[in-house]
Hints:
By secondary structure, the protein is an alpha/beta fold. Helices cover about 45% and strands about 15% of the residues.
Amino acid sequence: xxxxxxxxxxxxxxxxxxxxxxxxxxxxxxxxxxxxxxxxxxxxxxxxxxxxxxxxxxxxxxxxxxxxxxxxxxxxxxxxxxxxxxxxxxxxxxxxxxxxxxxxxxxxxxxxxxxxxxxxxxxxxxxxxxxxxxxxxxxxxxxxxxxxxxxxxxxxxxxxxxxxxxxxxxxxxxxxxxxxxxxxxxxxxxxxxxxxxxxxxxxxxxxxxxxxxxxxxxxxxxxxxxxxxxxxxxxxxxxxxxxxxxxxxxxxxx
Length: 254
């Protein structure tokens, strides 16, 4: 038996990167998956691949920064399988700019997706989970939810806010059997990291030197942590954050 046998999971932003890796890991542990992207043509191939491998999965196009679409995403899972056990709020964007030059458009784009979209996902999933007296919500934050780094005003603000949101919701919903946790990756090799390097003033060598474990994290490192948080192995874990960062946050030297 897999650790998530029979569980129904929605993973936002799961057409690529960390979200796709989490969906893969959940499917391998027996979960039924809703794959999500803002573009149907990105989500459908992932769902098709998982289905071909024997998993139960389907794709739902939705922009989670819009409340009605976040609600539709959750409802699609409930309509197909009758319940929702796991919600992973993973969809996120970045804007690396000098703070004095950050445009209103970029600020709102990052906040709308990374914070407002996560809240809408939590709210939609939470209503269903409260009604069924059980469920797990995983909010994907970042090591930037704990520290500040130049030129990441919008991104770091949203990721810090997710830690507060996680604490509030976990405190409200724990007695109804709903756990809310934060998963905080460090530097992981993803397409987003490659894009960030182009404007973020860092190299692979910088990250390897700065990380005590001496390497970037892998998608599997994050996905395995997500499986733990979603499973009954973490039954007494709520309101807390799990950093998957190779010791990056703990290291205070140069």
